[in-house]
Structures are given as structure tokens and as C-alpha cells.
């Protein structure tokens, strides 16, 4: 497409392998972000995460962490991360600076008690629907700007008396059948849930996943990360 020179200049000038001071401050005040994951076969999923300002914790210039709250039970993102640790985070500030920040890196799932032992001072959220079940810790590999020219400038609506329905199981308060999918679901054929493994089979598979993750981590340590934008140039 004739953009190689422009892309190379962007990568050279704007893409860091860590979060600088301004990036850390930006991330620390976000109330939402978008998360991209993929499974071992490359099948992608993109989802939304939200919480009070600071729910995305900046642990240091190379590490972010966020709590996983109780959701719909599918756990698509966590399942993908167990199979493929590569993630992409997009933070968008629609309200103040009208700018975005991309963070690409590798993630791991951490139990809540382990996270609190390692990082003292993490607050316990008093809202039941915002209590961490597990955490996702992201090691930063790339961080770069998302340009402002197409980001709309929005205005925050004052909170209502009812507040947000964190952790609710009420069908209507969660959105109900907003898109009318229930009436058309039968057209795709009967839904057959995947077979559920017993505890021993599940544990064996989990151990295999962890072993593969450890092998990938060991292999990654032996290689120098060259950036997701790097390209091969033939002589």
C-alpha cells in the first residue's frame, strides 16, 4: 500500500517497549479498556473491561494488572490467555484528552491471594460485583499512541441514583435480549454444549497448558523481542 516508510518512521518514533511517565498516568486514570485475545488456533475475541478509575493497575513501567470480575461464565478471554498469552489492550479517552493508548504484551492469570501477597496495598472493592475472582497480569512489550483524529469527544452523564448494576443476575438489568437473538437462535441449529471433563481429566489438561506456557516463557527469554511491526528486508 506504499506506507512502509511512514510505518517505519512511526515505529521508530512512537513505539516503546515500556510505559513512560505520561503513559503510566494515562493508564492509571482509565475507567475502561478494550481487550483483544486469541486462542491457540488464532480465533480472535475482543471484549470490554470497566471499573472505577485505577482498576487497571500500573505496577511498574513494564507491568499492568486488572481484576476479572464475575461475568457470564463463558470466560472467553481467560480461556484464550491460558492457550495463547499474547494480548492487545486499547485504552480510549473520549472525555478529556481525546487520545488512545495501545499496549501489546503477554498475559498470565494470577489468583487473587497470590496477587495480594506479591503487591501489597491492593484495595478490596466493597461492591460485590467488583470483587476480583482472579487477576490478569500483562507484561508490556509494545506501547504506542492511537491518534486523535477519529476519536469522538464525549461528555460524561452524571450518575443516577440507582447506580450501575455490578454483579447482577437480573436478565433485564444486564441488557436482556436487546438484539433479539433468542428468536433467531434456533435457526443456527441446536446448541450442544461441549462435553464437560471430570476433575482428573480437567486437571491433567490444565497441567499440560501450564507446562506449555512455561516452555513458551523459557523460549521467549532466549530470544530478543523485535517488535510486532518489524519486517524482514531482503538484501
Automatic annotation (TrEMBL):
Tell me the domain of life.
Bacteria
Per its UniProt record, what InterPro entries does this chain match?
Answer: Pyridox_Oxase_N, Split_barrel_FMN-bd
Cross-referenced SUPFAM superfamilies: FMN-binding split barrel
Q: Locate the Pyridoxamine 5'-phosphate oxidase N-terminal domain: which residues? A: 21-147
| Name this polypeptide is given | Pyridoxamine 5'-phosphate oxidase family protein
Species, as recorded: Streptomyces exfoliatus (Streptomyces hydrogenans)
> Lineage in the entry?
Bacteria, Bacillati, Actinomycetota, Actinomycetes, Kitasatosporales
Amino acid at each position: 500500500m506504499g506506507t512502509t516508510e511512514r510505518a517505519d518512521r512511526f515505529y521508530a518514533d512512537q513505539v516503546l517497549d515500556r510505559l513512560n511517565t505520561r503513559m503510566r498516568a494515562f493508564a492509571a486514570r482509565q475507567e475502561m479498556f478494550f481487550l483483544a485475545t486469541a486462542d491457540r488456533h488464532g480465533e480472535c475475541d475482543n471484549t470490554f473491561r470497566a471499573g472505577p478509575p485505577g482498576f487497571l493497575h500500573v505496577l511498574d513501567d513494564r507491568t499492568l494488572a486488572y481484576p476479572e470480575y464475575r461475568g457470564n461464565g463463558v470466560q472467553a478471554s481467560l480461556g484464550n490467555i491460558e492457550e495463547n498469552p499474547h494480548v492487545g489492550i486499547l485504552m480510549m479517552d473520549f472525555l478529556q484528552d481525546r487520545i488512545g493508548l495501545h499496549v501489546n504484551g503477554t498475559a498470565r492469570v494470577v489468583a487473587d491471594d497470590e496477587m495480594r501477597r506479591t503487591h501489597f496495598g491492593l484495595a478490596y472493592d466493597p461492591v460485590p460485583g467488583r470483587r476480583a475472582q482472579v487477576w490478569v497480569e500483562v507484561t508490556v512489550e509494545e506501547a504506542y499512541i492511537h491518534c486523535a483524529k477519529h476519536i469522538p469527544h464525549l461528555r460524561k452523564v452524571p450518575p443516577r441514583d440507582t447506580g450501575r448494576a455490578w454483579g447482577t443476575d437480573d436478565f433485564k438489568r444486564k441488557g436482556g435480549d436487546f438484539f433479539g437473538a433468542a428468536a433467531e437462535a434456533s435457526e443456527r441449529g441446536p446448541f450442544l454444549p461441549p462435553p464437560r471433563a471430570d476433575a482428573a481429566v480437567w486437571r491433567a489438561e490444565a497441567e499440560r497448558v501450564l507446562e506449555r506456557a512455561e516452555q513458551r516463557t523459557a523460549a521467549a527469554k532466549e530470544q530478543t523481542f523485535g517488535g510486532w511491526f518489524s519486517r524482514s528486508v531482503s538484501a
